[in-house]
Amino acid sequence: MAALPSLRQLSYLVTLSETLHFTEAARRSFVTQSTLSGGIMELERLLGGVLVERDRQNVRLTPLGEEVVRRARFLLADAQDLMRLSREMSEPFTGELHLGVIPTIAPFVLTPLLQSIGQHMPKLQLFLHEAQSGQAVERLEHGTLDIVLLALPFDTHNLMVQELRDEPLCLVYHEQDSNCSRARNMADLDLSRLLLLEEGHCLREHTLSACSISDLKQTSSLSASSLPTLIQMVQARLGFTLLPAIAINSGILNGQPQLKVKSIDQAPQRTLALLTRKSTPLHAEFAQLAKLLEPIINF
User: In the chain, fewer beta carbons within 10 Å around the N or the C end?
Assistant: First the structure.
């Protein structure tokens, strides 16, 4: 049987792909530069192709190298899950858990969730990571996150998904906005004044899902990087927006008496969900997190 690449060799290549610098990749891998270089050269020999192009100024992955890195990330994540399996079977709710949460959910659940985790899983060492949906899913697939809390619809690839609750998006507008005051459904709104988050936030796509193709061309060119900024733009009467119920129920509009909230027909909604890898050994923690989140997102 032909020799197979080792996980260590694949790890060296993945780290090099992230740094494109042999010295830095070696530092992150806690080995000498010659050890890392030798490991990658041996990997190239085993695979029968060039993975890395090197010269005095640049380091680049070849197309083969990029594909090997893509596959190696999944292998390394599965191997990491395998290493944790024995501990999880003998001592669940212990060790580290890296939880990713998207920015339009994180501020409204983390305080009660941390309190609940401390009460029900006191031996668990929790690490929180706030990231947009695309980055969070990628990090989950690659093994740097264990569980992700985000909103659907979103491409969850081949991950395990536990839907938690459907959440409506509510109309938020200035009290002097006569168009919004009269509106009963999405069709009544002047979408040229619809304010959105920047691209990359899934809430933007969830909001636009209720707009027709012709409407999409008419939405406001203004955008915000966060929900508080979006609210300030509405306060300044630059337009109106749609906010998730979890944010409104958490008091994000407190101190803004000029801003009004109402539900309207045909408004979009999203589904809060937990994601993890199918290979994860953290099934008990995954199920417990879903249970702990139920009363927190009960809007």
Answer: N
